[in-house]
Design a protein that fits this description.
With 91 residues, the protein is α+β, with helices and mostly antiparallel strands. The radius of gyration is 13 Å and the shape is globular. A 4-stranded antiparallel sheet has the order 2-1-3-4, with no helix packed on it.
């Protein structure tokens, strides 16, 4: 039930082979852009993402499944990456 400023959540799906921990680390300082840096190099690492949401809000994202492989995903809100992460497997 907390607002996104104090307990936000998103889902960012990275391209295959991206370093999830390194990506999460650089997101910590990007509060102005919902903890996803807006620079071109960072945006090229992302396959798909939702907006940052707070309690009671909803987000949706549509994308075309990429080539078969494993694609890391995470929540970029500070401190969430440690437990809110996984792999999207495309077969």
């Amino acid at each position: 039930t907390l607002p996104k400023l104090s307990m936000g959540h998103n889902v960012v799906i990275l391209n295959a082979g991206e370093d999830m921990a390194a990506f999460a680390t650089k997101c910590i300082t990007a509060a102005a852009t919902d903890y996803v840096p807006a620079d071109e190099a960072t945006q090229k690492q992302i396959l798909a993402k939702t907006k940052m949401i707070g309690g009671g809000e909803e987000a949706e994202v549509s994308f075309t499944a990429p080539a078969p492989g494993e694609y890391p995903f995470l929540c970029t809100f500070p401190g969430h990456f440690a437990v809110m992460n996984g792999r999207l497997i495309v077969e």
